[in-house]
Design brief:
The chain is an alpha/beta fold and 1008 residues long. The chain has 28 helices and 41 strands. α12 links the parallel β20 and β21. The chain is flat. The two termini are 38 Å apart.
């Protein structure tokens, strides 16, 4: 319990501190709404009094352990005046008003007010009763704990009445190491604020549930208001209204336009009003189709009426220049102040095809059929193209979001929703920028473990974000970005056509068990093209089976059935050209019979994927689809332990004065809850929480997802995707093969061997880094002197072979005598470094005579000793020269890279990349991923090198940069890997003040 407000602690001469604006944050709460967390200031007295008046007597009693009906003037002064070091207060606001507060006071070991170096603080929460159960206290605890750690506080203490179960639960479920005791009729809780694996898992689990719920509120509203509906047909607003009605939206719809006549009551059969405030019922979603200058007025109208979310179609924001960018920032601030999330601005709209919703709040004229594919785009034009392509090929969608400038809701939020959405089997994303790459990689990896994630990224080589996207710009090459995506299980494709091709196969066919592909068809040439395409994509095709041009649909059915039952193949590609009759004429209209025959054969062995390549066969793609009324197949096959999302977790944060928290998340990570209603549809009361038990929600998920061992719904008839070219079909199949392999491997996650801890002195390295950086570190970074870099690396078990300076021949001879012959003589001038091809390195010098001769030749050919800066180094066993690098990218995080030294990596770009921290499997994959990897494994009869030693080196470098964020780059070049052991001949390290890690801090929405 905090010191009662009428017992003021002794005055202290606190130093003045600037307002800590970096403590401000927008957060998503459990119910999907947003709120702002900020420090309490001296200007908040009236807000604090008003807030306290709305708190129940019971909550006040739990807070102060006694009846406390009102705050005195001294109380108000104390609770609004903080030094931001030893006494800190944070408030949660919605609409500018307080809905919760938290504060800490630093105390000594006797519980008295104290200053640093005391590292314990007393903490207390108060949440307005009307906002209890929204996860507010859980979010506040994350933020106040981060503030406390920043101010040197390591533990929180709290006294709680035993009846205050909600407060106890907040602390118990936070995941921190804690102690509990019972003293003087109250429970005393002590929390160690050092983050743990459990606390991070709890935080991310809550983040997932909250962000998924915020998207679910947008995609499954109970009511929609179209703000800006035109009085005459045509225009954006009227088009959206027409599409809403045409899709059969199951909720209530309203048309809003301030220019409507006072006596107008309806338009297109729906209620028409001049403002959202005149709607007599709650509104869940507002679609804004008004000019940009009128958007603030519309947002205020929506916010005051309690609208939950906005889709802003209006243009004229960041895509239009600096002025528009500031309008965009103001739009986000305004919407979040009311607890609303935004899709847009400059958005194309959203679609949800679930039967319980049937929402088409977009400009798409042809709504897609219901299906298993989720689609997210940042471009309206690309969204139109993708919707059109999927529509033409008969594919259905579960949901569609076109986020435009994605000033608020982004692809990360949509991934959070799709992860637990039972109606989405495949996630397709077109991205032009990634605002938080670290978070995207984390979410994509988790989602890809249960369903495919396919991404095509635009603006890959421009070096800047597209207009309207105010995001950090990554400096790493696109090839590196692609490698990191694949590490996370993301299927990266190059074009929107490939996005659709892969999506169709993944949505309607099971994953292949391996790379063996059977090819059959009635065209030998088309079969050979397919065979070549398989080899190009790294698949293992069997010899094509030619059915001849006279093959009938029955012949195809028999041949496909035989191939599918053959244990020697994992997938089948069927190639077909129009049937040639007895008269020698082509019959391009036999697609219906052929499609039926192929579906019949495939349905008998539904565990292997089938793709069809055809040339101008009318009606075949349609015939390959299930007939109307047939049950749709679900295609997330069981590929290992990570075959489905975890069961729903309890998340009942019902805290009042103390807030609350969801149940603790186990080591497996987040445990999402299934949204209420089919496909996230609208419950009976669209504004109420899903009050069913967690067990019943979990059972609903199992019932919805009742699949056979191969992933299909029992008795389902699946669509066979058709492609107009062999290369397209095979490329989609190859992506499925690679993804299936990743899924199987993801079920057996890697680890860091305990032996890596040997020879690691983390504390010593931290002390050395602190000394080398100094108090006035250059924020741009500092390159360490060779001796300092070698000392730091040695503390992590990475010894660097010593080099001795040789400013003259005599010094070179003396150095060689000390090192022992044979030696190498090398220049260290920047323009000659690692350039043996220019003659800057002389190897295997067996004695002093050879050394002096090499010294003379070197200086005569390349320049004087002052310019060349020669050094002498002992020779090491022969091997393969490699390079190991680790670098921190502002957007992507820490990246570990490996390749062969010299031309392969520098000229050909043959480098492999993995995110840090790397596991043993990451290290093994890293050295095997480069094109020149055979040189390490005995190419053309050479002896294989010591790859286990190389893998250990990679793990040590990964551990070094992961443990110490001050290290911004490490380069080991060359690393000579011999048949036994390796030698690091040169190394460079750069240090800089550690950057902020937004992926490890408390939950917060990005603010660009």
């Amino acid at each position: 319990m905090e010191t009662p407000p009428d017992r003021k602690p002794p005055d202290h001469a606190y130093p003045d501190h600037a307002y800590p604006d970096h403590w401000e944050a927008d957060v998503v709460l459990r119910d999907g709404g947003t709120a702002r967390i900020r420090p309490i200031t001296t200007d908040d007295a009236e807000r604090l009094v008003s807030f306290y008046e709305q708190v129940s007597d019971e909550s006040k009693y739990y807070r102060f352990f006694a009846p406390y009906p009102r705050l005195s003037a001294k109380d108000v002064h104390r609770f609004t005046h903080h030094d931001q070091v030893d006494r800190v207060g944070l408030a949660v606001t919605v609409g500018g008003e307080f809905i919760a507060t938290v504060r800490y006071d630093r105390i000594d070991d006797r519980g008295r007010p104290a200053s640093a170096p005391a590292d314990e603080a007393e903490v207390a929460f108060l949440v307005q009763d009307a906002h209890q159960g929204r996860g507010i206290a859980s979010a506040l605890l994350e933020h106040i704990a981060a503030v406390a750690r920043e101010r040197g506080i390591r533990r929180f203490a709290a006294e709680v009445l035993p009846a205050n179960a909600k407060m106890i639960k907040v602390f118990r479920d936070a995941g921190y190491t804690q102690k509990r005791s019972f003293e003087d009729g109250s429970v005393r809780l002590t929390l160690d604020l050092e983050p743990t694996a459990e606390s991070l898992a709890v935080q991310r689990g809550r983040e997932q549930r909250a962000e998924a719920r915020s998207v679910q509120r947008l995609l499954a509203p109970g009511s929609v208001a179209v703000v800006g509906t035109g009085r005459a047909p045509g225009g954006v607003g009227r088009t959206v209204l027409r599409n809403l009605l045409g899709a059969g939206f199951t909720g209530r719809t309203y048309a809003v336009n301030h220019a409507f006549e006072e006596d107008r009551t309806e338009i297109d059969g729906v209620p028409a009003v001049r403002s959202v405030a005149r709607i007599g019922e709650p509104v869940d979603l507002a679609v804004l189709a008004v000019p940009a200058e009128r958007v603030p007025e519309a947002v205020a109208d929506c916010g005051e009426h309690g609208v939950r979310g906005l889709v802003v179609l209006s243009a004229g924001y960041a895509e239009s220049g600096p002025g528009g960018r500031e309008r965009q920032r103001a739009l986000v601030r305004q919407a979040r102040s009311y607890g609303m999330r935004i899709i847009g601005p400059n958005a194309f709209g959203i679609i949800n095809t679930a039967d319980a919703v049937r929402l088409n709040a977009s400009l798409a004229p042809e709504p897609p059929e219901r299906g298993r594919i989720g689609l997210f785009t940042q471009s309206g034009a690309i969204g139109i193209a993708l919707l059109s392509g999927l529509y033409r090929r008969g594919a259905g969608l579960s949901s569609f979001v076109s986020a435009g400038n994605r000033a608020d809701v982004s692809g990360n939020d949509i991934l959070q929703y799709w992860y637990e959405d039972p109606d989405t089997d495949v996630a397709l994303l077109y991205l032009e920028s990634i605002g938080n790459p670290r978070k995207f990689t984390r979410l994509a990896r988790r989602t890809a473990a249960v369903k495919p994630v396919v991404v095509v990224k635009g603006a890959r080589h421009s070096g800047s974000a597209p207009p309207g996207h105010a995001v950090p710009v990554t400096r790493i090459p696109d090839a590196t970005v692609s490698a990191l995506m694949r590490q996370a299980g993301v299927i990266r494709v190059d074009t929107v056509t490939e996005l659709v091709d892969a999506g169709l196969l993944l949505a309607y066919q099971p994953l292949p068990a391996g790379p063996r592909v059977a090819i059959l068809g009635n065209s030998e040439s088309l079969g050979l093209l397919t065979y070549d395409a398989c080899l190009t994509e790294g698949l293992r095709p069997l010899r094509p089976r030619d059915l001849t041009t006279a093959a009938t649909p029955a012949d195809f059915r028999v041949a496909l059935a035989d191939a599918l039952t053959d244990d020697a193949c994992d997938a089948v590609v069927v190639t077909a050209i129009p049937h040639v009759g007895e008269s020698g004429t082509l019959d391009p209209t036999d697609g219906g019979a052929l499609g039926t025959a192929l579906r019949e054969a495939a349905s008998r062995t539904p565990s292997k994927p089938v793709a069809v390549v055809h040339v101008e066969i009318v009606g075949l793609p349609e015939a390959l689809s299930p007939p109307a009324g047939a049950p749709a197949a679900q295609t997330a096959p069981d590929t290992g332990p990570a075959a489905g999302p975890p069961a729903a977790a309890a998340s009942g944060d019902g805290a009042g004065h103390a807030g609350g928290a969801g149940h603790a998340v186990g080591p497996g990570g987040a445990t999402p809850a299934v949204p209420p209603g089919p496909g996230g549809g609208v419950p009976q009361d669209s504004r109420s929480h899903d009050s069913r038990s967690h067990d019943s929600r979990e059972q609903d998920s199992r019932d919805h997802d009742s699949r056979s061992h191969d992933g299909r719904t029992q008795g389902a008839v699946s669509r066979i995707p058709a492609y107009p070219a062999a290369e397209r079909a095979v490329r989609a199949l190859a992506e499925a093969v690679r993804y299936a392999r990743w899924r199987r491997e993801a079920g057996r996650p890697g680890k860091v061997p305990e032996t890596i801890d040997d020879a690691i002195d983390q504390g010593g390295a931290a002390a050395l880094i602190e000394r080398l950086l100094g108090e006035d570190a250059d924020p741009r970074g500092t390159r360490l002197a060779p001796a300092d870099a070698h000392e730091l690396l040695a503390l992590y078990g990475v010894p660097v072979r010593p080099t001795l300076p040789a400013p003259d021949p005599d010094s070179a001879a003396l150095a060689a005598a000390g090192l022992g012959y044979p030696v190498a003589l090398k220049t260290t001038a920047p323009h000659l470094r690692h350039r043996a091809d220019l003659g800057g390195v002389r190897l295997d010098l067996a004695d002093e005579a050879q050394l002096r001769l090499a010294y003379r030749e070197l200086t005569e050919a390349l320049g004087g000793p002052d310019e060349l800066k020669p050094v002498v180094q002992a020779m090491v066993p022969r091997g393969v020269d490699t390079v190991v690098r680790a670098a921190i990218d502002a957007a992507a995080g820490a990246v570990l890279s490996f390749g062969l030294a010299g031309a392969p990596s520098e000229l050909l770009g043959d480098l492999a990349h993995r995110l840090v921290p790397a596991t043993d499997r990451d290290a093994a994959d890293l050295i095997r991923s480069i094109r020149t990897a055979p040189l390490l494994f005995g190419w053309r009869g050479s002896a294989p090198v010591d790859t286990p030693a190389l893998e250990e080196l990679l793990l040590r470098v990964s551990r070094l940069v992961d443990d110490h964020p001050e290290i911004v780059s490490v380069t080991l070049e060359p690393v000579v890997v011999a048949t036994r052991g390796l030698s690091v001949l040169d190394a460079g390290v750069r240090l800089a003040p550690p950057p902020a890690r937004d992926d490890l801090g408390p939950r917060r929405l990005p603010s660009y």
